[in-house]
Design brief:
This protein has about 270 residues and is mainly alpha-helical. The chain has helices spanning about 10-15, 15-20, 25-50, 50-70, 85-110, 120-155, 165-185, 185-195, 200-205, 210-225, 230-270. It folds into two domains: about 20-180, no CATH class; about 185-270, no CATH class. The radius of gyration is 25 Å and the shape is flat.
Length: about 270
């Protein structure tokens, strides 16, 4: 029996939009999304600069609480006349970018979505949503658990000194911890892509779990701002949990790939 080629899958009106757009129309659409993104960033920066003093007050609370618990004056200092202005501008800029990020990602989504199939659009939406949720979980873990624990240990090593914490140095430390943990919490997303491209499998991740924990311990020892074992273990705990979550994500990816391959083989057999 002669082989009958499989009919091309219909994309539907909305899925075929990108193929009907000319190169110039793509550029116009890109320009539109960039302008909208810049507008959202501008609004975010204005809002961030407006509330930067209150935002830093919230960020400084773990430090002030640690100072009170150490029975010293709960005051932060600055060593340069322009220190407070520089701090508020920096906090406002970071806060503005964070506030604008969901809207910028939405503009990226609007630009790429017309050229994707329905299941691809679902995957991209899942990726963006999951990455944002995991980043927020990482920063929350850093603010409520990691930062207070680290500050408590650091202030316990006073000796014959009086701590005078600079606002700029504290902001740099807290930023490293919060953003660092936000990025660390992206581990399941990384495992998702590695599994999607066949670099790792659930079996590989499970068999090498001991080496993964060893690597996590080394990373925790390097990244943790203190030298005590308790803080390092607190840093390691979510990373280990995220690794096992990543194994589950990898299993789902492999299962979906196998199911898709079986469906393609069945369609190919049916067309002959």
């Amino acid at each position: 029996m002669p082989h009958t080629p499989e009919p091309a899958r219909s994309r539907g009106p909305e899925e075929d939009l990108a193929s009907r757009m000319s190169f110039l129309e793509h550029l116009v659409e890109l320009r539109k999304r960039l302008l909208h993104s810049l507008a959202y960033i501008g609004v975010g920066l204005v809002v961030g600069l407006t509330v930067s003093d209150r935002a830093f007050g919230f960020l400084a609370e773990p430090m002030l609480k640690a100072l009170r618990n150490a029975h010293v004056t709960d005051r932060l200092v600055y060593t340069s006349p322009i220190g407070p202005i520089t701090l508020y501008i920096t906090v406002g800029l970071y806060l503005g970018l964070v506030l604008a990020l969901p809207f910028v990602l939405y503009q990226v989504w609007l630009f790429v979505a017309p050229g994707l199939y329905r299941h691809e659009r679902s995957a991209v939406a899942w990726f963006i949503g999951s990455a944002m949720v995991l980043f927020l979980c990482g920063t929350a873990f850093g603010y409520y658990i990691m930062l207070p624990t680290s500050l408590k240990f650091l202030l316990s090593i006073q000796g014959p000194f009086t701590p005078m914490i600079s606002i700029n140095e504290y902001f740099d430390l807290s930023l490293i911890i919060l953003i660092g943990l936000g990025l660390v919490f992206q581990l399941p997303i990384l495992i998702f892509f590695l599994s999607l491209f066949g670099v790792v499998t659930p079996k590989f991740l499970w068999v090498n779990v001991r080496y993964a924990i060893l690597i996590i311990a080394v990373v925790a020892a390097v990244v943790t701002p203190t030298t005590d074992a308790l803080t390092m273990l607190i840093f390691m705990a979510p990373m280990i949990v995220l690794y096992f979550v990543g194994i589950g994500v990898s299993a789902l990816v492999v299962r979906n790939k196998k199911n898709r391959s079986k469906e393609e083989l069945a369609r190919a057999a049916a067309s002959q």
